[in-house]
């Protein structure tokens, strides 16, 4: 999605989780690109810098923050309000968010626009690889669902869909049920049941 406006360039402030990552970013990335001005900062020293760094920011991006940095994230987000904030690749699992106390509501206030998480469930005789996937086109929310894909014959196929973000337990249940249906043991049991039904004349 292009970021562009007339007159002045859009300033994106990227927050790295530590000073070394910020310094590496300054060496690698070109800070100026046409209509966009990119500035790198780190969460540990943002308030040691000039306050105009935040006040002149149009969009803030937090890259791979740790759960221990949530309080700082919230403070920065509050100071930037109502400017947009992007949280990219956070360093905690979805199941942990309910354990963040007062910060749980802050984390829950973010809308997920893209998520891709690989899965693998092992059964007695087989294993299944899958993916939980959600994507919002062009950043505009329109009721996108969380889809669960499972690999079958080398292709990823949708086996279930959720309105809200599914828990790991819900996804595991879907995969285990799918494995049970396709299990050789289950198929053998069905075959024997059908065979006995034909032999006795019962259904």
Summary of the model, kept short:
This protein has six helices and nine strands.
Question: How would you describe this structure in keywords?
Answer:
203 residues, Rossmann fold, 2 domains, DUF1995 domain-containing protein, DUF1995, 6 helices, 9 strands, four-stranded antiparallel β-sheet
Give the topology, please.
Layout: E1 10-16, H1 19-28, E2 32-33, E3 36-42, H2 52-55, E4 59-63, H3 70-80, E5 85-88, H4 104-108, E6 114-122, E7 127-135, E8 146-152, E9 155-162, H5 168-182, H6 184-200
Structural commentary:
With about 200 residues, the chain is of the alpha/beta class. It folds into two domains: about 1-110, Rossmann fold; about 110-203, no CATH class. It is built from six helices and nine strands. It is elongated and about 60 Å long. Residues about 185-203 have low confidence and may be disordered.
